[in-house]
Write a structure and sequence with these properties.
Blueprint (H helix, E strand, L loop, with lengths): L7 E6 L7 E10 L2 E9 L6 E8 L13 E3 L2 E3 L7 E7 L12 E7 L9 E3 L3 E3 L3 E6 L6 E5 L10 E2 L4 E3 L3 E8 L9 E7 L4 E4 L2 E5 L14 E5 L2 E4 L5 H8 L20 H14 L6 E2 L18 H4 L2 E2 L6 E2 L3 H8 L16 H4 L31 E7 L8 E2 L10 E4 L16 E3 L8 E2 L3 E3 L2
Length: about 450
């Protein structure tokens, strides 16, 4: 039989001028039950709500709210006599383990108080996988209302009934309500869902372009950019990842292996990869071509200029995979800051962060084998050029928010430089472009997702 450590009991009472009184509280374990005995009296003979809370950290916090309770819990209608009552708690059914020094709090409330603040489980934090969040309220009979968009909950907000599935970065807020009671304080929790191969950037502002005075005219004028939250891949998409989704590996002659960056891919083909991967993972596909988000309806990836594929629509609100914008790419390459204002992605020493002409032996190299930049992203200087969403075009000197490039053009932006480039081509502000249909041997990419 599992045994619980000794229970230490506390009590609290409603805050009226004549408050309920709990006395003679004892507890003991009988097999898989904990028996809680108490006496209750109220000077005004008012009904009381009896609830139980449990602490597993020595009473620092009471975050376990038992539900497998029977007996004298909930509403006690007659309270004047100071009679004895008993609560049976099946702690095993509530998933409470043995061997800890639990503390139990018995609460009597006569209905004139404030609803207790709702509690989230798991708590706020950063997680690699989607989370199913439960919300509990210590006040018996309280209704929990919540929001998932960061707005304040109120009496008309969604009623909590089942765990909330969170698969993207979300601010969850909740408030407890009960007739005749003061609503609870609002509880808030931010959940960051960042898969292990992605980095979450909370957004912000930076100066884009040639801030070091070592670039070319297409990197000017420098200008201020504000970005919303987004995710960026830690590494370039690998040949193994590409083959798992697309069924073949286009890379040949410049480094071949599952952990090498995929190369010899066109801009068109990256759109297909992104939507197929999104669909495989149950995410909402980002790209629409010919009125469909399903690549099965797009036909073969074009090997020449194609007006239908050039007219691809990007749904920036979808949670699926996509290419980064040029601004997102540079922000990530800079580590989300202009200070320090590195030439390359994470350093002024190109050899520490990049595979380029002088150290590559004229081949790609496995991703993530050089030092990362400040946000933990690898190979944002060198190895392979990386496709971005934007058509190529001139910069504007005016401040911009979430720029996505010109509406049309002849070529799309690529960034980072590649294994045969000199250092000047591997700078974080260096711009280049390529034809969308042409799978050149130096072209690869990394994934992004909108951060909502």
């Amino acid at each position: 039989m599992n045994k619980l450590a000794i229970f230490i009991l506390f009590l609290t009472a409603g805050l009226l001028s004549a408050a309920p009184v709990l006395t003679n509280i004892t507890a003991g374990q009988l097999y898989d039950q904990v028996l809680i005995i108490y006496h209750l009296a109220h000077p005004d003979n008012l009904p009381c709500e009896i609830s139980v809370q449990v602490s597993n950290d020595g009473g620092a916090s009471y975050t376990i709210f038992p539900t497998a309770l029977s007996g004298d819990v909930g509403t006690i209608s007659t309270t004047a006599s100071g009679a004895q009552y008993q609560i049976n708690w099946n702690y095993i059914s509530d998933g409470v383990g043995s061997g800890k020094n639990y503390r139990v709090k018995v609460i009597a409330d006569d209905g004139a108080g404030e609803v207790a603040t709702p509690v989230f489980n798991p708590p706020a934090g950063s997680y690699e996988n989607a989370q199913n969040v439960t919300i509990t309220c210590p006040t018996s009979g309280a209704t929990i209302r919540y929001t998932t968009d960061g707005s304040e909950p109120g009496s008309e907000s969604e009623i909590y009934s089942t765990p909330i599935h969170i698969d993207e970065t979300t601010t969850l807020k909740a408030q407890g309500f009960k007739p005749g009671w003061t609503p609870s304080a609002v509880s808030s929790a931010e959940y960051t869902i960042a898969p292990s191969n992605m980095i979450y950037l909370s957004g912000g502002s930076f100066t884009m372009g040639d801030t070091r005075g070592e670039g070319t005219t297409d990197e000017l004028p420098t200008h201020s950019v504000i970005l919303s939250p987004f995710y960026i891949g830690k590494c370039e998409v690998t040949q193994g990842e590409w083959q798992a989704v697309m069924g073949s590996n286009p890379a040949s002659g410049y480094g071949v292996g599952a952990n090498y960056p995929v190369y010899s891919i066109s801009w068109y083909s990256t759109l297909k990869f992104c939507n197929l991967l999104s669909m495989a993972e149950g995410l909402t596909p980002v790209y629409t071509i010919l009125g469909s988000t399903n690549p099965a309806n797009w036909g073969n990836v074009p090997s020449s200029w194609d007006d239908n594929w050039n007219a691809a629509v990007c749904d920036w609100t979808a949670n699926g995979y996509r290419l980064p914008t040029e601004a997102e790419w540079e922000y990530a390459a800079r580590g989300g800051t202009n200070s320090p204002d590195y030439l390359y992605a994470g350093s002024d020493d190109i050899n520490s962060v990049a595979w380029y002409l002088s150290n590559s032996a004229e081949n790609t190299h496995p991703v993530g084998t050089k030092a990362p930049n400040g946000i933990g992203a690898y190979d944002m200087s060198g190895n392979v050029w990386e496709w971005c969403w934007d058509w190529n075009g001139d910069y504007s000197g005016t401040a911009q928010t979430n720029p996505t490039g010109p509406a049309a053009g002849d070529t799309r932006i690529i960034r980072s430089g590649f294994f045969l480039n000199s250092p000047a081509w591997c700078r974080v502000s260096k711009r280049y472009s390529s034809f969308v249909h042409d799978p050149v041997f130096y072209l690869g990419f990394r994934l992004a997702r909108s951060g909502m």
